[in-house]
Automatic annotation (TrEMBL):
InterPro entries: MFS_trans_sf (IPR036259)
Keyword Translocase attached: no
UniProt key word Transmembrane: yes
Organism: Desulfosporosinus metallidurans
Signal peptide residues on this chain, from the entry's feature table: none
Protein name: Permease of the major facilitator superfamily
Keywords, comma-separated and alphabetical: Membrane, Transmembrane, Transmembrane helix
Domain of life: Bacteria
Alphabetical list of SUPFAM superfamilies matching this protein: MFS general substrate transporter
Transmembrane annotation, as ranges: 53-68, 136-158, 164-182, 203-227, 233-254, 266-285, 297-315, 361-381
Gene3D superfamilies the UniProt entry points to: MFS general substrate transporter like domains
Length: 391
């Protein structure tokens, strides 16, 4: 087995392990906050500042870890996430300690994001970056699918607790770190600059900023609508995660194929249009269905919109491949991906606070009206993207 193929298999296995942790997080994290700390909407939205701050800081942390290279940095990221999971499981009896361990957990997750895309694209043949990222995401999703099904069963029939779930998540992060360390480092030291900020990448930066705003609306308020408005518990989120993962096994490679065949601009524009309808659906479905006497199916409609939004998260790889294609040099890619995440989180730290204020004063519907406006701006920005040929 060649070195590249061996590294690809190891990275697939590492991504599969992370799929376990992602499923555990998606299935119960918001219910864990609600059940353990009985948060108000104001407390919940404030929590997004420490949760998202590591994303803002990621460009500085990757700069500090400059000499490690992408692969070793990815391993460090998963060790941090694993430690944070253990802290949430066993050392967070009150709200303030929980914030500290949540920050460690989040730092690991956010530090891994740019490394994952950079490593995945380096493992791709010319002209097949989208397909390669789609394959990696598909394996991750297949494991996510199995874990979500297991989580739904365990919480519904065996009544496991949150401590056990976080421990499983930590073990998966540590396993991923070990597998990544078994890969061949690209180099002993990353070549190029620690930090990159270029005018030529301004559209990429803009796409990340708008993504940060729209993403945070659904991370914070999408699940909170199901919990607070429709009184749904862990089992519901586990079942939804099962559907998301099942569809994602096919959807993510399909998005990768579209990226390679029709280009990033088409894919990102399609995402923006879809999000406009998802946001408007969240805002108005309940009122419209109640007026039509269809209130009994409102929950199912909102759940379908929740699934669709989670599916669209796969489109984020189009931003990474777009940057790879327009990069002035290969050395710009990894630090610029990190800069994109920092700009994304510069916005997403404060969107929950503003959204919580809108929810409190006007109602949850208007949070999603604002989300539709952000998606419209995103659609307009895609018209400024360069048309680039496959690498």
């Amino acid at each position: 087995m060649g070195i590249r193929k061996r590294d690809f298999v190891l990275f697939l296995l590492a991504s599969a392990a992370i799929g376990i942790s992602q499923s555990v997080d998606t299935s119960f994290f918001n219910n864990f906050l609600n059940d353990s700390y009985h948060l108000t909407i104001t407390q919940r939205t404030f929590l997004e500042i420490p949760r998202e701050f590591p994303g803002f800081a990621v460009v500085f942390v990757t700069g500090l870890l400059f000499a490690f290279g992408d692969i070793r940095t990815a391993a460090v990221a998963n060790v941090l996430a694993g430690l944070g999971s253990l802290g949430l499981a066993f050392w967070s009896p009150e709200y303030l300690p929980m914030i500290g361990w949540l920050t460690v957990y989040s730092m690991g997750q956010h530090l891994f994001m740019p490394m994952s895309n950079s490593i995945g694209m380096n493992l791709a043949a010319d002209g097949h970056m989208g397909r390669r990222l789609g394959q990696i995401n598909s394996v991750n999703t297949a494991v996510f699918l199995a874990t979500s099904l297991a989580t739904a069963f365990l919480f519904r029939f065996i009544k496991i607790d949150y401590h056990f779930a976080f421990t499983i998540s930590a073990a998966a992060f540590f396993l991923s770190a070990v597998l990544i360390l078994m890969m061949t480092p690209h180099s002993g030291k990353r070549i190029g600059k620690r930090f990159v900020l270029r005018q030529e990448y301004k559209v990429f930066y803009g796409l990340n900023i708008l993504y940060g705003a729209r993403k945070q609306i659904f991370i914070t308020f999408g699940p909170w609508v199901l919990i607070k408005i429709f009184n749904q518990g862990v089992a519901t989120f586990a079942i939804l995660s099962f559907f998301i993962a099942g569809l994602g096994i096919v959807f993510k490679p399909f998005i990768g194929h579209l990226i390679d065949s029709v280009g990033e601009r088409f894919v990102l524009a399609g995402e923006a249009v879809s999000l406009i309808f998802v946001c408007l659906g969240y805002a108005f479905t309940r009122g419209i269905f109640d007026n039509l006497g269809l209130g009994s199916i409102t929950l199912y409609a909102i759940c379908a919109l929740f699934v669709l939004d989670q599916m669209l998260a796969a489109v984020s790889m189009a931003r990474a491949t777009y940057l790879k294609k327009i990069a002035l040099s290969e050395e710009d890619v990894s630090p610029t991906l990190s800069m994109g995440i920092t700009l994304d989180h510069m916005v997403s730290m404060f969107v929950p606070w503003l959204g919580g204020l809108i929810w409190t004063v006007l109602g949850y519907e208007y949070v999603f009206v604002a989300g539709a406006a952000i998606a419209t701006l995103n659609l307009l920005l895609t018209t400024r993207m360069k048309t680039v040929n496959p690498l």
